[in-house]
Amino acid sequence: MRTILALGLTSVLVATTCAQVVLGDNKGKVRAVNALAPISLSESPLQWSRRDFQDNTNNETFGFWPAYTIQVDGLQFDALDNQVGLGGATTPVTITTVDSLVNNFGWPTSFTVPQYLFRQGGAYTNENGFQGNRQLYGPVWIKYELDDSNPNGWNVVKVQVFAWDVRDIVHKASATKTRSFSDTGAPYQIDIYVAQNDPNPASDPQTDPNWTLVGTLSKANGTLPNVCEWDASTGNTFGECPQATLDYLNGANPAGVRFCDDPTNAVWYSTLNVSGQSGIKYVALVIPQGNQYNNDPVLRARDRVANSLRYTNITDVRVIAGIPGDVDGNLCVDDADLLIVLFNFGNAGGQGDVNNDNIVDDADLLIVLFNFGSGC
C-alpha cells in the first residue's frame, strides 16, 4: 500500500490543479502532417506548404508552414525530423485597417496583432479552376504533440482553432484594397481527434485505432465562421465575407469586444468542448472537405481561376487541459468523478484510468481525492 500511495502522490504532483494551455503559449509542437511540399517550392495536391511571402503594406513575412499554426517560439522539426517552420511568435505586427472598417465601424486606421495571428499553415486541397472541375483531392491532416511536462498525459477539455485569415478580412494588404475580402482558403470542416499513444507519427488518424474522433467544427453547423460565400448583390466570383461576420468582429459577439481592440480574445477562435478524454498526449486536426470557396455551390460553378483557390489554411491552434481528477471533463472534481473511478476500479485502463497506466486502481482514486472540490 505504501508503494501505491507513493505512486499516487507522484502522479498528483506532476499534474496541475487548474486548467491550462498545453498546446500554444510556447508549449507543444507539430508532430507530423500527411505530406510536405519541398521547402520554398510549389506544392502538389495534398501537400502542406513550406513557403514564405512578404506583405506589401507592412513588409512582414507571412506564409503557410505547418508550425505557423501554433504559438511556439523557434525553428520547429516534426517527429520525423522534417523542418516544419518557425512557430508563431508574439512579436507585434501592424495591421493597416481596410477603409470599410474604418469608415463604417470607426476602427482605428492601424492596430497590432501578435505575429502568430498573421501567419498560417495551409495545404493544397482543391483543384484551382484551371482544369474546370474544382475537385477535392482528398482530406489532409496535421498532428500535434501536447506539452510533455506531464508524463501521464492531459485531461483535454477544449480544442480551439483560429480558422480565418486576418490579412484577408481586416488588413489593407495593398494600396487598392478598400474593403474586407472573402477568405477563400478558410476550412469548411475540421474533424478533431485525440490519442494517448501514437506509435506511428505518419499514420492517418482517421484509420489508426490509437486515435479517437471527439468532435467536428464546421461552417455547416455554425462552429466555424462563414467568411466566404456567394453574394448576388456584388457578383464577386471570389465571394464575399458576409455582413454578419463583420458585425461579429465589430462587437456583436458573446464577449462584446471588437477584434481591433482585443485580437487575442478566445471569442475569435472556434472551440470544441471535449469531455471524458484523459491521458491525452496528442491532438490531430483533419480537414476532410477542403476550403469554403469550393463548398459554395454557386462559387464553385463560376469560371474564376486563381492559384489561391486551391489552398485550405488555418491560423492558430490551442489545446486546453482541465483539472486532474476531473474525469468527466466538466471542470469540477466531484462525486461524479469519484464514482467513475470506483465503478471502473480494477479495469485494465479505459474510463477512470486517470494516470493512464492501463489499470484503474488506488493511484487514480488518490488523484481524484487529492483534487476533490477543485474547480467547483
Question: How many beta-strand segments?
Answer: 17
Average pLDDT over all residues = 91
Using only CA atoms, what is the Rg? 22 Å
Low-confidence stretches: 1-17
**Number of helices in the DSSP assignment:** 7
How many domains in all?
2
Fraction of residues in β-strands: 15-25%
Q: What would you call the shape?
A: globular
- Amount of helix: 10-25%
The run of helices and strands is HEEEEEEEHEEEEHEEHEEHEEHH
**First-to-last CA distance:** 30 Å
The side-by-side strand order for the widest beta sheet comes to 2-10-15-12-13
Largest sheet properties: 5 strands, antiparallel
Q: What structural class do helix, strand and pairing data support?
A: alpha+beta
Give an account of the 3D structure.
It is a single chain. The chain has 376 residues and is α+β, with helices and mostly antiparallel strands. Helix content is 14%, strand content 22%. The protein folds into 2 domains: 1-18 and 333-376, no CATH class; 20-322, no CATH class. The chain has helices spanning 2-14, 99-105, 166-169, 243-249, 297-301, 335-343, 362-370, and strands at residues 20-23, 29-33, 52-54, 61-63, 75-77, 83-86, 92-96, 110-114, 121-124, 140-145, 156-162, 189-195, 211-218, 270-273, 282-287, 311-314, 316-321. The strands form 6 sheets. A 5-stranded antiparallel beta sheet has the order 2-10-15-12-13, with no helix packed on it. The chain has a 4-stranded antiparallel beta sheet with strand order 1-17-11-14, with no helix packed on it. The chain has a two-stranded antiparallel sheet with strand order 3-4. β5 and β6 (83-86) form a beta hairpin. The protein is globular, with a radius of gyration of 22 Å. The relative contact order is 0.19.
